[in-house]
Amino acid sequence: MYPKVRITQVRSTINRPKDQKATIQALGLGKLNRTVEKECTPQILGMIKKVSHLVKLEETE
User: Is residue 1 classed exposed, middle or buried when 0-12, 13-18 and 19+ CB atoms within 10 A define those classes?
Assistant: First the structure.
């Protein structure tokens, strides 16, 4: 089982490339200050890395 991470969108996707907008949608975000909790799988970590400038991370237990 992977540890969990809380992801919060803190910047807008306006004027961002389509792939970054799609990644934000795939993470379950899309509006500012929306928060989701996901497991830290390699796929999720790659998605977070791609949009790291738009989101804030918090580790959960």
Answer: exposed
Task: Give all domains of the chain, ordered by start, each with its CATH number.
Answer: 4-59 (3.30.1390.20)
CB count within 10 Å of CB 40 equals 15
Measured distance CA(19)–CA(21) in Å, rounded? 5
Each of the 61 residues of the chain gets a pLDDT tens digit; together they read: 899 999 999 999 999 999 999 999 999 999 999 999 999 999 999 999 999 999 999 999 7
pTM: 0.92
